[in-house]
């Protein structure tokens, strides 16, 4: 009997361990409220004086991601204060310290025909904020009783036509996640808005999760148990009649850029008459993805907002040189949307690990009849050269962009400041998306100088952060608020 009880205990422990292991995510809100009143009793509009925000539930299956309901967030950022936010205060402190991602599913509302033309929704930035209870309060009820936690994350996706997953990395920049009392999210204009016209955006499936993968990573090969698992996910291709390309999971440290795994591509482009190329196909997570920064136009097809990734980066190492490297972006239908060559038609020499930063297009090809929001894979090709046998390793393929560095002068109950770059003086063709000693040195070089609002001395080379015609402690204070902030998407690029 004792033995049986012991076995039962062992089984229970095993089951509990499984349960804990499966608890890598926690649903925060999936908007399955009974009705709009129930929703609005939980989610409050932060600025209730501007009448620029309205929320209700939708049951339209096109606009529901999970369950039977989703949030319809209607907003108008075209007039002061130019931002809108809703927030939810939890009944008790939430301990999210085991999680590092906040996930939201987002889908833009339908385009509307107003007067004589089609209007898209506004191109706002969605932002996410976490709050804790302000000191001195125990049961916060209003926004004034909340205190902002660390960082504000921005994401551009208010007009995505497909359900799109936004995963904000809450492990970096946010302060103590053990006492989260409220979450807020809202909209700020990105570059354009339709003054006086409302936009709508749908939200569903809010979760906190734990993931070991940086959301900027397309593939770092750490997730594959072995070569078979790699081959089940990564496809290959060659010119007709060519020797097939072979891929395998590489675990030799010398051939791994980061982590403990990389991919080895062993190819033989012997068949010159067939073009002599070999490729590997890396699927994009949560495809289709939209990477473009779409232009403003009222010509069909109507523009939509993309993720504005600035670069696609590929780490590679050539073991046996015999070809040149090309990267392609392909859509769901297999059409090439973008292509880039590394160093032209030159054989990439054997050598150490090299980072290739590929500048991405800001606009889709207007002649392209296919939708531009359906990217499905990154493909890496070895071609040409001496048309012979080669070996190349790839690791850490990721996208990068600079997201806003919001001024931390934002306080609960007050509107956010509208200078998202405060302190990153070398931003905009000069900037690096970080606030560090480079910026401090630039400010120090202009210390106490008088500034003008035009000409060569405009705002003292951007160091007059509050634009009051002088560089002094006020500007230093703004920089100090953002000290060591990094707005880069790829965490490894945030080393100071
Ligand atoms: Ca739902
Ligand atoms: Ca790796
Ligand atoms: Ca900087
Ligand atoms: Ca100033």
Describe the fold and architecture.
The structure is a single chain. With 496 residues, the chain is mostly beta strands. It has 3 domains: 25-209, Galactose-binding domain-like (Jelly Rolls); 217-400, Jelly Rolls; 437-494, no CATH class. 11% of the residues lie in helices and 34% in strands. It contains 6 helices and 25 strands. The strands form 5 sheets. Strands 1, 3, 4, 6, 12 and 14 form a 6-stranded antiparallel β-sheet that branches. Strands 2, 5, 9, 10, 11 and 13 form a 6-stranded antiparallel β-sheet that branches. The site of one calcium ion has 8 residues, from α6. One calcium ion binds at residues 30-32, 64, 66-67, 69-70, 204.
Tally of DSSP helical segments? 6
Major sheet details: 6 strands, antiparallel
The stretches of 5 or more residues where confidence is low (pLDDT under 50) are 1-6, 11-23, 295-304, 406-418
Q: Find the CATH superfamily of the largest domain.
A: Galactose-binding domain-like
Q: Please identify the top-level CATH class of the largest domain.
A: Mainly Beta
CATH architectural group of the largest domain: Sandwich
> Percent range for helical residues?
10-25%
Mean pLDDT: 82
| Rounded Rg | 25 Å
* Structure ligands: calcium ion
**Overall SS class:** mainly beta
- Structural domains: how many: 3
Kindly state the number of beta strands.
25
Task: Tell me the overall shape.
Answer: globular
CA distance, first residue to last residue? 62 Å
β-strand percent reads 25-35%
User: What is the CATH third-level topology name of the largest domain?
Assistant: Jelly Rolls
């Amino acid at each position: 009997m004792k033995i049986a009880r012991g076995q039962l205990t062992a089984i229970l422990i095993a089951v509990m361990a499984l349960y804990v292991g499966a608890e890598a995510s926690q649903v925060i809100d999936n908007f399955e409220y009974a009705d709009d009143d129930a929703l609005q009793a939980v989610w409050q509009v932060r600025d209730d004086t501007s009448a620029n925000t309205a929320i209700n539930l939708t049951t339209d299956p096109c606009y529901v991601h999970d369950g039977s309901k989703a949030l319809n967030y209607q907003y108008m950022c075209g007039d002061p204060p130019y931002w809108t936010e809703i927030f939810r205060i939890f009944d008790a402190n939430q301990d999210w310290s085991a999680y590092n991602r906040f996930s939201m599913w987002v889908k833009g509302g339908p385009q509307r025909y107003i007067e004589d033309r089609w209007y898209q929704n506004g191109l706002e930035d969605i932002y996410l904020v976490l709050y804790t209870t302000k000191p001195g309060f125990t049961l916060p009820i209003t926004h004034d009783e909340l205190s902002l936690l660390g960082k504000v994350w921005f994401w551009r996706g208010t007009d995505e036509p497909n359900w799109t997953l936004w995963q904000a990395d809450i492990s970096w920049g946010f302060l103590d996640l053990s006492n989260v009392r409220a979450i807020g999210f809202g909209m700020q204009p990105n570059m354009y808005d339709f003054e006086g016209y409302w936009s709508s955006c749908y939200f569903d499936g809010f979760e906190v999760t734990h993931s070991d993968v940086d959301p900027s990573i397309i593939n770092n090969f750490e997730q594959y148990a072995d070569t078979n698992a790699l081959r089940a996910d990564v496809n290959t291709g060659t010119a007709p009649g060519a020797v097939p390309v072979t891929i395998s999971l590489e675990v030799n440290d010398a051939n791994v850029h980061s982590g403990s795994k990389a991919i080895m591509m062993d190819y033989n482009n012997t068949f010159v008459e067939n073009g002599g190329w070999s490729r590997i196909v890396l699927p994009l997570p949560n495809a289709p993805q939209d990477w473009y920064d779409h232009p403003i136009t009222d010509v069909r097809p109507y523009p939509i907002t993309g993720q504005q990734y600035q670069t696609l980066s590929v780490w590679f190492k050539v073991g046996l040189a015999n070809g040149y490297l090309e990267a392609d972006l392909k859509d769901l239908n297999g059409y090439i949307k973008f292509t880039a060559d590394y160093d032209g038609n030159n054989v990439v020499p054997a050598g150490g690990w090299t980072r290739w930063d590929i500048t991405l297009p800001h606009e889709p090809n207007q002649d392209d009849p296919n939708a531009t929001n359906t990217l499905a894979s990154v493909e890496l090709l070895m071609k040409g050269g001496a048309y012979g046998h080669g070996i190349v390793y790839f690791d850490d393929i990721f996208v990068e962009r600079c997201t806003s560095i919001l001024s931390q002068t934002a306080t609960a109950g007050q509107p956010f400041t509208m200078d998202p770059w405060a302190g990153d003086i070398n931003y905009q063709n000069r900037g690096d998306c970080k606030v560090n000693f480079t910026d401090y040195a630039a400010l120090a070089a202009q210390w106490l100088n008088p500034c003008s609002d035009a000409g060569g001395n405009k705002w003292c080379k951007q160091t007059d952060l509050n634009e009051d015609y002088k560089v002094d402690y006020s500007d230093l204070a703004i920089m100090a608020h953002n000290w060591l902030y990094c707005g880069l998407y790829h965490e490894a690029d945030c080393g100071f």
